[in-house]
């Protein structure tokens, strides 16, 4: 097999994103970095070290749709004529990037309101979404791959496997003979992956269970005989089963901390987040902490340790409150205004964004 070369592009907050160059036929990039001058310069420098130029790239495959993995696809394809191959979900997102990310943004605003984030905090955190808009670009996919398909890239055969959870479009690209997988942000060595809660193609009428889905995807990956995972950020992972075990233990600890917070009384997700992170973190990253807390609350709801009730506070969707199950049963006030876990924020049959 020909060599695999790691090129790191700068990225605010997290430091860098990995672009993987697969030497061999066709000359391939897995992920691209964000659409920024600094990332493009880093890519060009990395290719130059290999005696290559952007114009030489023949194939680009993103691991998922996030801007730091796809932002330069359109630029690279325009300069090189490279073909783009992507999992069907990532292809669909790329074709409608502006509309889809705008829908994610407006959904997140409703989600934050519904889960107790004050409006001024929502307003002051809009830079998160401005950054996504400014460093992403729609991309066209020439070869749309289905879960399980095999594609020739960089002199090897890669099998694409859907692993939704971190995003709805996550995929692994697996080189089975060498037991090596390109995993994007599905499993990272240094940090736990987030699981974004965004509109889904076919709403079920309940909140998208991104965290639950993520853990299911992690279990599937842990069952695979892999020797090396090349990640989207930071170091490679050699012992993926050990790391998955550690990530599961972290989930159990966080669930336990949420139960401890709820022992003091019912709370909404943002109120719980205030107990788990610094004032600065919850003020600057409200959508991330709401995704994190809600994902863990979904695990606790599935275990019947927690109950969720939507209380009408005069706002459009009301506010979602969470009780310890035993407290909800003994507290008669809790049943006043109780509603099922399903709220009108997650209607069946239409995208929440289309309610706007
Ligand atoms: Zn990502």
Give a structural overview:
The chain is α/β, with parallel strands linked by helices and 356 residues long. The protein has two domains: 214 residues, Metallo-beta-lactamase, Chain A (4-Layer Sandwich); 101 residues, Arc Repressor Mutant, subunit A, CATH 1.10.10. It has 13 helices and 13 strands. It has a six-stranded mixed sheet. It has a five-stranded mixed sheet with strand order 7-8-9-10-11, with no helix packed on it. The chain has a two-stranded antiparallel sheet with strand order 12-13. The protein is globular and about 70 Å long. Zinc ion binds next to loops.
Query: Which structural class is indicated by helix and strand composition?
Result: alpha/beta
Q: Could you name the CATH class of the largest domain?
A: Alpha Beta
Number of domains: 2
β-strand percent reads 15-25%
Mean pLDDT equals 91
Question: Could you list some keywords that capture this structure?
Answer:
single chain; 356 residues; alpha/beta; Metallo-beta-lactamase, Chain A; Arc Repressor Mutant, subunit A; 2 domains; 13 helices; disordered C terminus; binds zinc ion
């Amino acid at each position: 097999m020909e060599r695999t070369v790691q090129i790191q592009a700068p990225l605010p907050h997290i430091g860098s994103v990995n672009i993987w160059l697969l030497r061999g036929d066709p000359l391939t990039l897995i992920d691209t970095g964000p659409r920024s001058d600094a990332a493009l310069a880093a890519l060009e420098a990395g290719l130059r070290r290999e005696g290559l130029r952007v114009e030489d790239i023949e194939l680009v495959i993103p691991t998922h749709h996030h801007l730091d993995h796809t932002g330069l696809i359109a630029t690279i394809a325009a300069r090189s004529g490279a073909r783009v191959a992507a999992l069907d979900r990532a292809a669909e997102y790329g074709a409608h990037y502006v509309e889809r990310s705008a829908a994610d943004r407006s959904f997140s605003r409703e989600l934050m309101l519904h889960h107790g984030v004050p409006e001024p905090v929502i307003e002051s955190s809009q830079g998160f979404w401005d950054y996504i808009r400014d460093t992403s670009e729609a991309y066209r996919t020439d070869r749309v791959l289905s879960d399980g398909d095999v594609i020739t890239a960089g002199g090897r055969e890669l099998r694409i496997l859907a692993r939704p959870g971190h995003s709805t479009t996550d995929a692994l690209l697996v080189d089975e003979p060498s037991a090596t997988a390109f995993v994007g942000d599905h499993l990272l060595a240094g940090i736990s992956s987030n699981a974004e809660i965004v509109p889904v193609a076919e709403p079920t009428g309940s909140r998208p269970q991104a965290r639950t889905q993520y853990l299911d995807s992690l279990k599937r990956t842990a069952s695979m005989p892999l020797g090396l995972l090349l990640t989207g950020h930071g170091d490679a992972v050699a012992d993926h089963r050990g790391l998955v075990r550690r990530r599961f233990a972290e989930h159990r600890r966080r669930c336990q901390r949420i139960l401890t917070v709820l022992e003091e009384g019912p709370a909404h997700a943002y109120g719980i987040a205030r107990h788990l992170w610094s004032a600065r973190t919850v003020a600057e990253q409200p959508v991330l902490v709401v995704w994190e807390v809600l994902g863990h609350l979904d695990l606790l709801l599935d275990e019947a340790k927690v109950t969720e009730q939507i209380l009408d506070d005069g706002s459009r969707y009301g506010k979602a409150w969470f009780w310890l199950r035993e407290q909800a049963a003994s507290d008669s006030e809790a049943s006043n205004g109780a509603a099922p876990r399903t709220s009108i924020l997650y209607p069946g049959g239409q995208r929440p964004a289309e309610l706007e």
